[in-house]
């Protein structure tokens, strides 16, 4: 491959790439439909002109037929009157119009075929334009959906690394921290309440023991406010045993009541 061929191929590739990038699908579809509509207008004008020419040829053909019939009648009239020379001239004029009529008939048949072909082409073009418009709207909807999806994907990609999402993460972390603090405070409050009830239970045991001591201090030979001090003199042995026995009985009663 020569150098110029390679350069030509590179230039062509670059130009094709530029053209592809410059093409807007929606605008290209709209332009294609406009061009088809312009072709339709031109074709309609051509069909109208062909039909007009056909009508003129048809009129000329009918006029020639009328002339043929007229000169045919003139020739018959001349023969009836014995004017053979005049009848010959009438037949010559008839032949002239007959030749013209034959030429007009051939042209009329050709024009009729052309008009029928143009009409079929017109119908086909109208059908293609209608199909193109429908397809254009479908493609336009797909282009709009593709653009929206592309824009949405771009927004999603931008949100993944944006400061807004980072702010949401920070706020979520703060909410979690605050919830943890509230839960800890609730647990501490519940533990403190349990400690208070535990202290009340232990306090009741002390109160019971205190009541038992008070009851013990109320024994015979004692005072409600303070215990009885022993006498300086030594009591008889029998009295001492009775006091001990009474105290033992009181302790037994207290034990039974506990």
Structural summary, described in words:
This protein is mainly α and about 260 residues long. It folds into two domains: about 20-160; about 165-225. About 90% of the residues lie in helices and about 0% in strands. The chain is built from five helices and no strands. It has helices spanning about 5-20, 25-80, 85-160, 165-215, 235-255. α2 (about 25-80) packs antiparallel against α3 (about 85-160). The protein is rod-shaped, with a radius of gyration of 64 Å. Residues about 220-235 have low confidence and may be disordered.
Give the radius of gyration.
64 Å
- Helical amount: over 70%
By secondary-structure content and strand pairing, the structural class works out as mainly alpha
Strand content: under 5%
- Total number of distinct structural domains: 2
User: Could you report the average pLDDT, rounded to the nearest whole number?
Assistant: 78
The major pleated sheet works out as: none
Low-pLDDT sequence parts: 221-235
What are its keywords?
258 residues, mainly alpha, 2 domains, 0% strand, rod-shaped
Outline the secondary-structure elements:
Layout: H1 3-22, H2 25-80, H3 84-160, H4 163-217, H5 237-257
Keywords: Coiled coil
Organism: Brasilonema sennae CENA114
Biased composition (Low complexity): 226-236
Give a summary of the structure in a few sentences.
This protein has helices at residues 3-22, 25-80, 84-160, 163-217, 237-257.
């Amino acid at each position: 491959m020569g150098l110029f061929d390679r350069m030509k191929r590179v230039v062509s590739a670059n130009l094709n790439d530029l053209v592809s990038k410059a093409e807007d699908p929606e605008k290209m579809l709209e332009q294609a439909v406009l061009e088809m509509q312009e072709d339709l207008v031109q074709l309609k004008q051509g069909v109208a002109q062909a039909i007009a020419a056909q009508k003129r040829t048809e009129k000329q053909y009918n006029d020639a037929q009328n002339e043929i019939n007229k000169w045919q009648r003139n020739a018959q009239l001349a023969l009836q009157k014995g004017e053979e020379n005049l009848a010959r001239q009438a037949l010559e004029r008839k032949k002239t119009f007959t030749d013209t009529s034959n030429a007009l008939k051939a042209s009329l048949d050709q024009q009729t075929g052309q008009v029928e072909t143009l009409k079929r082409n017109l119908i086909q073009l109208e059908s293609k334009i209608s199909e193109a418009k429908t397809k254009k709207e479908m493609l336009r909807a797909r282009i709009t959906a593709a653009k929206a999806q592309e824009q949405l994907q771009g927004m999603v990609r931008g949100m993944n690394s944006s400061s807004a999402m980072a702010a949401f993460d920070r706020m979520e972390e703060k909410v979690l921290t605050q919830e943890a603090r509230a839960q800890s405070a609730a647990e501490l409050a519940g533990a403190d309440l349990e400690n208070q009830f535990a202290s009340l239970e232990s306090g009741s045991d002390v109160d019971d023991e205190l009541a038992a001591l008070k009851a013990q201090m109320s024994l015979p030979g004692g005072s409600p406010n303070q215990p009885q001090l022993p006498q300086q003199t030594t009591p008889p042995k029998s009295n001492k045993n009775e006091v001990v026995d009474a105290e033992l009985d009181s302790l037994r009663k207290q034990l039974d009541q506990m």
